[in-house]
């Protein structure tokens, strides 16, 4: 276990700040403002606290060094961009994401009860979202009157169709906390078993195809690699899959969304093939032209939205948006090959950890990573998975999913 030097925070203060961090789980449902305010405030406080009390060793790890290298690349790209102030808004304060991950890791070392606080925060939040989501699916509107949008369930997220993304990207962390939790009562295990099935199916009926793919990728990874609760997760997966197949056959809207619309989007029914869809294809090709024009450091974070309308870059039917909907393509356009290599390097590092775990198990019959870490690694992998559409890599909520899981990814 990694240990940190401490300035002897009082137990009461540790408890308060740990509970405050756990509140981030439900706050992410409210929108970007409150989570960003909390993360920015806690990160600023921890930076001040750690420097004041000379707790420098918390920053001495490969993940933080890697993050700082990426952050400095983003700042340099901003300083060389055509709109320095706009670009710096995205890059300068991005450092809070890395500091917050270090802060979470530090709190785990100081107060193991934070694992319980986060576990219950996930349990209650996911349970409420599940109840509300199914209520919306069966009645047409959720408990607060938000109607289904385009036949897609959104629950408390209202007009934002990100219920599936929230559940799928944070589910590995929730499962990791369940796995590591000691002295689970039978009633609790049964409740979580049913909840997991409902969550799997809810992500499907939310209509977010990328989130459903990411859920299955993380699920298969966990089933293959973990030892404890392997059959637990496998049975949940099989039951969920049977329900999903039944729903697809009997719900024409779901069938159209997942089968018909998907084949049409990627051009399986025509001679012309696309990256994900004609719209996404247009954005990707536009971003790639931007990369070719400035291949080393790109045009600057946040500047795809500005440059995409330039005739020398704009390609296809819909070349402009605030981002090109893929992390890797966005970094190529906005931070060049240097920024891209940081993300690609992180992805291959996670792959390396997985292979090393397999190697040690086959050769030495020992587990290099704990089941807890394997669950978290599955969440980190789907966060940086290259072959899907994504949101904006400089968006607070998306990076908080990564920051939280990286903070928890440590030996216990």
Number of helices: 17
Shape: globular
Rounded mean pLDDT is: 90
Determine the N-to-C terminus distance. Answer: 5 Å
Oligomer: single chain
Structural class: mainly alpha
Q: Segments where pLDDT lies below 50 for 5+ residues?
A: 1-5
Secondary-structure element string: HHHHHHHHHHHHHHHHH
Biggest pleated-sheet summary: none
Kindly state the number of beta strands. Answer: 0
Strand content: under 5%
Rg (C-alpha, Å): 22 Å
Overall helicity: 55-70%
Offer a few descriptive terms.
412 residues; 17 helices; 68% helix; mainly alpha
Mind explaining what this structure looks like?
The protein has 17 helices and no strands. With 412 residues, the protein is mostly helical. The protein has a domain at 112-272 and 370-412. Helix 6 (95-110) runs parallel beside helix 17 (396-408). The termini are close together.
Q: Could you write a compact summary of the structure shown?
A:
By secondary structure, the chain is mainly alpha-helical. 68% of the residues lie in helices and 0% in strands. The protein has a domain at 112-272 and 370-412.
Layout: helices, strands, pairs:
Elements lengths: L10 H12 L1 H4 L5 H20 L9 H18 L4 H8 L3 H16 L2 H27 L23 H18 L5 H20 L3 H17 L4 H21 L1 H14 L12 H16 L10 H4 L19 H38 L6 H13 L12 H13 L4
Helix pairs in contact: 1-7, 3-6, 4-5, 4-6, 4-15, 6-17, 7-8, 7-9, 8-9, 8-10, 8-16, 8-17, 9-11, 10-11, 10-16, 11-12, 13-15, 15-16, 16-17
């Amino acid at each position: 276990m990694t240990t940190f030097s401490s300035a002897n925070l009082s137990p009461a203060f540790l408890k308060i700040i740990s509970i405050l961090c756990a509140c981030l789980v439900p706050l992410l449902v409210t929108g970007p403002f409150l989570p960003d305010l909390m993360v920015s405030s806690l990160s600023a406080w921890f930076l001040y606290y750690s420097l004041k009390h000379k707790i420098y060793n918390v920053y001495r790890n490969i993940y933080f060094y890697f993050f700082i290298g990426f952050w400095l690349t983003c700042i340099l790209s901003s300083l060389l961009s055509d709109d320095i102030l706009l670009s710096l808004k995205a890059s300068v304060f991005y450092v809070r994401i890395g500091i917050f991950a270090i802060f979470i890791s530090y709190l785990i070392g100081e107060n193991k009860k934070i694992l319980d606080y986060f576990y219950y925060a996930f349990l209650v939040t996911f349970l409420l979202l599940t109840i509300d989501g199914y209520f919306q699916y069966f009645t047409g509107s959720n408990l607060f009157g938000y109607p289904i949008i385009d036949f897609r369930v959104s629950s408390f997220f209202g007009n934002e169709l990100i219920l599936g993304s929230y559940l799928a990207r944070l589910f590995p962390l929730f499962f990791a906390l369940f796995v590591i939790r000691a002295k689970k009562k039978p009633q609790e295990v049964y409740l979580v078993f049913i909840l997991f099935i409902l969550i799997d199916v809810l992500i499907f009926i939310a209509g977010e195809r990328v989130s459903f793919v990411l859920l299955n990728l993380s699920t298969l990874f966990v089933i293959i690699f973990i030892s404890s609760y392997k059959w637990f997760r496998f049975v949940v997966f099989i039951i969920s899959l049977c329900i999903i197949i039944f729903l697809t056959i009997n719900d024409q809207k779901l069938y159209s969304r997942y089968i018909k619309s998907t084949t049409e989007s990627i051009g399986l029914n025509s001679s012309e093939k696309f990256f994900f869809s004609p719209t996404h294809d247009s954005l990707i090709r536009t971003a790639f032209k931007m990369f070719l024009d400035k291949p080393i450091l790109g045009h600057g974070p946040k500047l795809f939205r500005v440059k995409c309308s330039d005739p020398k870059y704009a390609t296809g039917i819909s070349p402009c948006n605030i981002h090109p909907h893929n992390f890797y393509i966005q970094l190529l356009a906005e931070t060049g090959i240097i920024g891209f290599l940081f993300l690609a390097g992180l992805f291959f590092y996670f792959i390396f950890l997985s292979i090393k775990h397999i190697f040690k198990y086959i050769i030495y019959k020992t587990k290099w990573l704990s089941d807890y870490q394997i669950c978290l690694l599955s969440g980190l992998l789907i966060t940086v998975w290259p072959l899907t559409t994504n949101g904006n890599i400089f968006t607070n909520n998306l990076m908080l999913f990564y920051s939280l899981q990286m903070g928890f990814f440590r030996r216990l």
